[in-house]
Structure formats: C-alpha cells, structure tokens
Design goal:
- The protein is of the alpha/beta class and 330 residues long.
- It has a domain at 234-272 and 282-330.
- It has helices at residues 48-55, 82-91, 100-103, 110-121, 126-139, 145-148, 158-170, 188-205, 216-222, 240-245, 250-256, 297-301, 323-328, and strands spanning 6-17, 20-32, 37-41, 64-72, 75-76, 93-96, 176-180, 208-213, 225-230, 233-239, 307-308, 314-315.
- Bound molecules: adenosine-5'-triphosphate.
- Adenosine-5'-triphosphate is lined by residues 15, 22, 24, 42, 44-50, 63, 214, 279.
- Belongs to the ABC transporter superfamily.
- This is Peptide/nickel transport system ATP-binding protein.
Length: 330
C-alpha cells in the first residue's frame, strides 16, 4: 500500500493564557491517502481551522504545536525551518480559504499573481507561466480567461474570485490542497459548482484534498472519508458512505440529522441540544457527555480514544468499547 500523502500523529495545539494553558487540539491523528478527499467537519470552534493551520505551519502565535508529528509523503514537516516550510506551502500544499481576499492581493492583477506563484515554484519562462495560468483559469471556469487574466481581483464576482483562488492554489501543482470553508461566503447555488471544480481538477491530477467545513451536506456530496472533530478531539473517522448510512458516535449521528433532504426544510432539521464546551471548561470523561442522550457512567469518568477497526472506521465512544478493553482499562 502507498504511504499516505499526509499523516498527522497525536497533534496537540495549545494556547498559553494568563489563566493557564488551553488545549485546542488534543492528540488528533489521521491520514490522507493519495487522491483522497478527506472532509473534516465539526461545529464552530471545534478546531478545524487550527488543524489546517498547524499542517501548513501557519498557526498564529501564541498558538503552538505542543507535541505530535506531521508528515508529508514520508517527510516530517512540523519541525522544518521557516524557509523550507515556505517552499512547501504553495508548491506541495495548496490552500483555499473562505475569504478570497486572504489569498489575493487587491493591488496586483490576477495574471501577475498567478505568474509570480508559478515562477516562484517552477522553472518556467514568463510566457509559459502565462500560458499555464490562462489554461488553469479556463479550467476553473472563468469565461474569456485570456482577457480576464489581466483584471484585478475586485473586477470579479465573489464566486468567480473564489475560482481564481482555486487556480492560485493549484497553479504550482500541489500534491495536497487544504480548503477551509471554501464556499461558506457564497450563494448556495454557486457553492456546489466551486467544490465540484476543485474536486475534479484534484482528481485529474491525483492530488489529495482536505476539505474543512461545518456542513455535513457538503461532506456527504464531496468527500471519500470524513473526520468528525468535537472540542479539539476526533470523535469518529470513516468512509463517508458508511458513516452516513450508520453514524456511530452520537455526535456524528446528531450532525447527520442536520443535513437537509428534499423533504425537509431547514427549520425541521434535528439540532443537537446544547453547545460545545469552551476550552477552559471541557468536562471530565467524554467532552460530548453533557449533550449525549446515550451517556452512561463511564462516559463521565474516562475520556474515550479512537479505536481503529478492521473496516477502516474509528470511533471514540464508550458505546463501542469491547468487553476486552473494558477489562484491560479497569
Ligand atoms: N489566540 C487564541 N487564544 C485562545 N484560544 C484560541 C485562540 N485562537 C483560537 N482559539 C480557540 O481554538 C479553538 C479552535 O478554533 P478553530 O478556529 O480551529 O475552530 P473551527 O472549528 O475552525 O471553527 P470555525 O468554523 O468557527 O472557524 C476555538 O475554541 C478557539 O476559541
């Protein structure tokens, strides 16, 4: 079996504060295989963006990786010097953020930005870089790309601008694209088209995608596997089809209830009562226990870990603990 493109091992991200250290990511581990789309889902504040930022080495201080390892195709990248990491960003890992203005500089034309990025990472002439840039803009669905390439970002609509950002993220042909809520700011009708184009191009090139979203519906339509994050810990990981058919973690089941179907309106969707705990008030045992209708004594006492299974799924929930580990864990 091929090694994963990305391997995150026991990632711990902390914020030192005057009142003590807050742990925002707690031993998060997952892999992304070559060509795979991994969806990372969870409520606001679960730690999705921090996971992406830690992978690309752009955690904002005072946030820091306290422990754990991040590997890109077998090479450890969490401890690289800043300059080396800068070369990995853009070249080997492309990034798409929710707000196109994070990625695009309003003072330069799209051509200038694409050509510069291509030439920073690849040894090609200006003419060749422009040719590639036009072809990519065309591929992401910008009409009259050969002409529009000389426009400034503000000349494009929100949806078109996000297509430009996708072109920018993909122009140096990265192996992995991290897309953090790439369509949240856009009209629902445009969202699916943008995700589709990102997914299609990555599939053509064999690139992997980590798609961060709070929207289980987007994951259901797009991802191969899903990782569910709750209060900085992974609750469940597995193939999307299996998880959708039978979510095991009660939190995942709650998220599934929030996917609209043709017969449901948004108002009638199941919502999980309560809210995610603050980082300084994570309850003892399973962090989901105050909201869980199935919690029993052990859930209030011990924190469950993800348990790898033969079918590729992992669930961190005492409901699925076997009698054997119950005995060995006392
Ligand atoms: N500078 C900071 N100091 C303390 N805590 C922080 C800081 N920055 C982020 N956090 C905490 O880290 C947690 C994870 O934040 P993150 O942005 O990754 O969540 P998210 O799941 O991506 O949510 P959203 O969908 O709202 O972006 C949050 O609880 C947040 O309060």
């Amino acid at each position: 079996m091929k090694p994963p493109i990305l391997s995150v091992r026991d990632l711990v991200v902390e914020f030192p504060t005057r009142r003590g250290t807050l742990r925002a990511l707690d031993h998060v581990s997952f892999d992304i295989a070559e060509g795979e789309v991994l969806g990372m889902v969870g409520e606001s504040g679960a730690g999705k963006s921090l996971t992406g930022a830690a992978i690309i080495g752009l955690l904002e201080p005072p946030g820091r990786v306290a422990s754990g390892e991040i590997w890109l195709r077998g090479e450890r990248i969490d401890n690289l010097p800043r300059e080396k990491m800068r070369r990995i960003r853009g070249r080997r890992i492309g990034m798409v953020f929710q707000d196109p203005l994070t990625s695009l500089n309003p003072l330069y034309t799209v051509a200038e930005q694409l050509i510069e990025t291509i030439r920073t990472h690849m040894d090609v002439s200006e003419k060749e870089a422009r040719k590639r840039a036009v072809a990519l803009l065309d591929r992401v669905g910008i009409p009259a790309a050969a002409r529009r390439i000389d426009d400034y970002p503000h000349h494009f609509s929100g949806g078109m601008r996000q297509r430009v950002v996708i072109a920018l993220a993909l122009c140096a042909e990265p192996e992995l694209v991290i897309a953090d809520e790439p369509t949240t700011a856009l009209d629902v009708s445009v969202q699916a088209q943008i995700i589709d184009v990102l997914k299609e191009i990555c599939a053509e090139r064999g690139a992997s995608v980590m798609l961060i979203t709070h929207d289980m519906g987007v994951i259901a339509e797009t991802a191969d596997r899903v990782a569910v994050l709750y209060a900085g810990r992974l609750a469940e990981i597995g193939p999307v089809r299996d998880v959708i058919q039978a979510a095991e973690h009660p939190y995942t089941a709650g998220l599934m209830g929030s996917i609209p179907t043709l017969t449901q309106t948004a108002e009638r969707l199941t919502q999980i009562p309560g809210s995610m705990p603050r980082l300084n008030a994570i309850p003892q045992g399973c962090a989901f226990n105050p909201r869980c209708t199935k919690a029993f004594d052990r859930c209030f006492r011990d924190q469950p870990d993800l348990i790898p299974r033969a079918d590729g799924r992992q669930v961190a929930c005492w409901l699925y603990e076997t009698a054997k580990s119950e005995v060995s864990n006392g």
